[in-house]
Amino acid sequence: MKVGKLDWDDLKNLIDKNKTVLRDDVRIRNGIGEDCSVINFGEKECVVSTDPITGASKNGGRLAVHINCNDIASCGVEPIGILVTILAPEECTLDDINNIMKEIDDETKKLNIEILGGHTEVTRAVNKLVISCTVIGKGDKGKAVSTAGAKENDDIIVTKNLCIEGTSIIANDYERKIDNVLSKEEIEEAKSYIKNISVVKEGIICGKFGVNSMHDITEGGLLGGLWEVAKASGIGFKIYKDKMPITEITKKLCNAYGIDPLRLISSGSMLITTNRGEKLIDLLKSEGIEASIIGKMTGNIGVMIDKEYEVQVEPPERDELFVLEEKLK
After folding, report:
1. Of the residues 88, 105, 140, which one is the last residue of a structural domain?
2. InterPro entries, from UniProt (predicted)?
């Protein structure tokens, strides 16, 4: 099998064949594009999500906190606690594990979330550190936003710049191999993108504003995330390539190695659909968050306008980060 997330059809079949219990107190449950489940606890709802870090060698603890908290934020609620599982290979040292936990502690302080528990072990089952986290959030009954809520004619909004996570991982893990593409100053700037990887602030703002759908842009990049939103919502989309917010540094990296930035892991940018796009853009900018309208939700297919051409969007087979890794080996 290829490295990366399972093919969407295989994943759907896997979920559908192994989901026999459906409880009434689960309001939003697992499915294509739904990164969180929402459980009814009376006047409050519990929002839960889980994800591992496997594609980065550095900043694993930091990334583990934010990719999971970002999923909770995509429901428009505040994360309150995290459980951490660390699987370490035999050559790992106690200092390595301590460094991971120090990163996790530093990032949870910034977000005011508590480390609730977890599990740590050394195992021959892995050849590098694997960090998997589960985050719990809390919100008012019926208020959590789902991926599947997008409506036809919604504006499609992305916050900040795309490829924040992917660019940072490349700069941190492959610094010596990309110094012929980026200057020393550009590499340091690319590394710093990780400081902007949280979307908790915009998620909570959008939850209070009232949007139809949100999705944290992770593996598979913008096109993967948007395809998941459309698939979950049963509609399509039309986006414009020239409206994509991508930094010049990211463009240089992608051009040099022939990878598509729209299919590169992009935690740090929230994908939002709403019928009040301009008002939301103004609100986000008033809170110091840049945002761009890149298109609209439409009928039953997804297309991208590239200059005068209209291209139908297919689900990415795997993230471009894995493609780059093979090129840089």
Report:
1. 140
2. HypE, PurM-like_C_dom, PurM-like_C_sf, PurM-like_N, PurM-like_N_sf
